[in-house]
Amino acid sequence: MPASARSFAPLLIAMLTWLPFAHAQEPPPRATGGTVYVPVYSSVWHGNLNDRGKPENALLSVMLSVRNTDPRHDMIITSVRYHDSSGRLLRDYLEQPRALTRLSSQGFFVENREAQGGAGASFVVSWQAEQPINAPIMESVHVYHWGTQAQAFTSRGQVIHSEKSASQP
Question: Are 160 and 38 in contact (CB under 8 A)?
Fold first, then answer.
């Protein structure tokens, strides 16, 4: 066996040993409710600093997507609150709870002319379910579009409170 093949063999063995475990994942967490913090960038700094030492600021439109990932059970969105960079409440999007059937989603929109949120804005979303369900996915999609140019990126939410049933660990 050539020397290059002998040096490659241990790496190949390690990869083949590890491969069956690479795709093994824990089942998704289940809960009966919770609260999720979703980062929002209603504006982003870019370009160079101006004469006052401040960067240019581009306003972005933002869509919050709340997705029920459970294939069998419904969930209820109980509140969707939009906060600025200092944590001050700017808007409460729901007047009453909104049901999401299994595998459905709901969007909430921030216009790109909204300048109050800033680079550190956030959504705080609360939800409930009658029985433990797969945790929902909550993401914000940020878009800047001008003429023939467009930029888009997403931010994934972070659970800040979870309600688990008494039968779960």
Answer: no
